[in-house]
């Protein structure tokens, strides 16, 4: 069974976790539409729009923009990089002997080739993302449509009492709901902040805001993929004030303030609003670090897997603790 379904296991797990995360949306649709099938279909369409529309807009617009880039831009970038390497700042003068080889390798063709190669890599990754997302949406529909039957089956099969199985499912559902919505809110917040700054500079704020929202999900280098090209481009155009502004704004306002300080507050607020008083609440800092650990270990989908694994592990520890106390009382 493992060998048979190994290529689809990740998609199935992600779909199941997303179904758990958005069970309240499915229940809302089912209450209105009076049909489990239509509710599952509506939830799947909503999730598909969330996944596909922003990325589709990004890919189409990016392709149009790259095909209309003025060759003069590459020439300006080359001049800027050469000037920097020939006359580096004082604190980098010790690297000047090692920069000669780099200068020889820089040309308009090499820069253009690198940029289009990088764009091709993005396109390839996006195609893989779209394929995986499509499978996740399909599995998500079946998880929503047949979720109740599957959960009841697992409760009967697993070697734990009904109360323990219910506790495990409840805590996992609680944590995943908070994680799912916090990821969406945080990505939207960072995308809006970056889009506003870029709009102020005269660029397409909607496009680059969506791009930054997706990039923010990439661990460690997410924001750098967005603000560094803008900084280099503005320097190449001779506008150092804009270049410095976008670099400082992104690092300080988005990366430090929004991602480091505001994100845990978003998780905490969602913890309070989404969960009832009798629901298990995982500490927002644990969820925050679980998301980071998941992204670092598993990549994009790790933002879902990390908190799920952590919640599952902590719930198992609680069950062991409860059984230990029962044995001591006996």
Task: Looking at this protein, list some descriptive labels.
2 domains; 330 residues; AI-2E-like; transmembrane; transmembrane helix; elongated; mainly alpha; 0% strand; membrane; Acid membrane antigen A
Report what the structure shows.
83% of the residues lie in helices and 0% in strands. It folds into 2 domains: 157 residues, no CATH class; 170 residues. The two termini are 41 Å apart. It is mainly α and 330 residues long. The chain is elongated. The chain has 13 helices and no strands. The longest helix is centred in the middle third of the chain and has 50 residues.
How would you summarize this macromolecular structure in one to three sentences?
Belongs to the autoinducer-2 exporter (AI-2E) (TC 2.A.86) family. Helix 2 packs across helix 7 (108-157) and helix 11 (240-274) packs across helix 12 (284-298).
Q: Structural class from helices and strands?
A: mainly alpha
Shape annotation: elongated
- The low-confidence parts are none
- The DSSP helix count reads 13
Topology:
Layout: H1 2-5, H2 9-21, H3 23-33, H4 36-67, H5 71-86, H6 100-105, H7 108-157, H8 162-200, H9 205-215, H10 224-236, H11 240-274, H12 284-298, H13 302-329
